[in-house]
Amino acid sequence: MDDSHQLQEIRARIDALDEQLQCLINERAELARQTAQIKQAAGLGENCFRPEREAEILRRVIARNQGPLSGQEMARLFREIMSACLALETPLVIAYLGPEGTFTEAAALKHFGHSVKTQPLMAIDEVFREVEAGTAYYGVVPVENSTEGAVTHTLDRFLVSPLQICGEVELRIHHHLLSRNQTIAEVNRLYAHQQTLAQCREWLDAHLAGCERIPVSSNGEAARRAGDESDCAAIASDRAREIYGLHALATNIEDEPGNTTRFLVIGSQAVVASGNDKTSLLVSGPNRSGLLYDLLSPLAEYGISMTRLESRPSRRQLWEYVFFIDVEGHIDDSNLTTALATLKERASFLKLLGSYPRAVI
Predict the structure, then answer these.
(1) pLDDT tens for residues 110-146?
(2) In angstroms, rounded to a whole number, what is the distance separating the alpha carbons of residues 247 and 233?
(3) What is the pLDDT of residues 204-258, one digit of tens each?
(4) Do 100 and 44 reside in the same domain of the chain?
(5) What total number of domains does the chain contain?
(6) Where along the sequence does the record put site: Essential for prephenate dehydratase activity (predicted)?
(7) Are 79 and 137 members of one domain?
(8) What is residue 85's DSSP assignment?
């Protein structure tokens, strides 16, 4: 058989498989629609998104995958199929720190798929308020970066918000220098989020030492300004470059090649266990010798692994601090329940922020 006939056979098989895939995807969509109708008829609420269920499905996709596509790539395909199926009955409204083109938007689409309705907002406070008011089902906000640490505005908001953490997203961050201009020599002002300026500090010192650096609310806002103004540039994503019609004067200018930001999905409902979860909490006590040891020792005593610890001023009393803690496990796990009961006895303030699936893709 010559090459042309072999190619024709392969293409015919691809066409047949495409037809089968299309039928199967539509069959899955119909079952998803029936599931939504049954839930709504039973009064189980309009929001059919189940974070733990979706995490379980994606983990199974990765576990059974045998290639040649990677498990992560296959999971991203299933993520979009699930997003489209869910949108048939209950299109989710997802608020995020905008404008368009921010990494928070990319995180929202990575977690929920492209069939949701996204709502860009200009401040983290606004994202919380929109979800609290019920005009958005969920919100997505940045919480920490592997290079520059905590996003304190997000942490502080949890002190006063009734919302819970329903999920997390980890996103590799690649920063690009974008401008209307054609060369770096034409740039006199630079816009970017303050965390981004810090993540690219060494590159900027080497290539734009004399340029004025202006922090703004988001990299999307930086790109928007760079699109409107001459002799300036922004640090932002490749999607922002497309949205605002900018040139990439330099790519991947972040100082750390593994630069990653973690985002939190916030909502109003508790999430049941998925089998691989995290729990986040706030805890505080009067300033005294051994306070932190007293607060953390129940976790060690009951075999709870702590993955993160941050402190912030409590804003109630001078030199009093609140500790933000992430641990492995779900609040329904017996050892974690017991540990938190002991912790509550030692703390003057304890607030559970939520148990939620660990990031899958």
Answers:
(1) 999 999 999 999 899 999 999 999 999 999 999 998 8
(2) 9
(3) 999 999 899 999 988 989 999 999 998 999 999 999 999 999 999 999 999 998 9
(4) no
(5) 4
(6) 261
(7) no
(8) H
176 bridge partner residues: 236
Phi, psi of 117 (to 5 degrees): -100, 120
Q: How far is CA 153 from CA 94, 96, 125, 140, in A?
A: 19, 14, 8, 13
Q: Is the peptide bond before 68 cis (omega within 30 degrees of 0)?
A: yes
Token duo for residue 111: 């977690």
Cβ within 8 Å of residue 114, ≥6 positions away: 80, 83
What region, left, alpha or beta, does residue 73 occupy, with left being phi > 0 and alpha being psi -120 to 50 degrees? alpha
Q: Which phi and psi (to 5°) does residue 147 adopt?
A: -95, -45
Tokens matching residue 54:
């979706």
CATH assignment at residue 221? 3.40.190.10
- Residue 4 in domain: no
Where does a domain end: 87, 121, 147?
A: 87
Catalogue the active-site residues. Answer: 261, 263
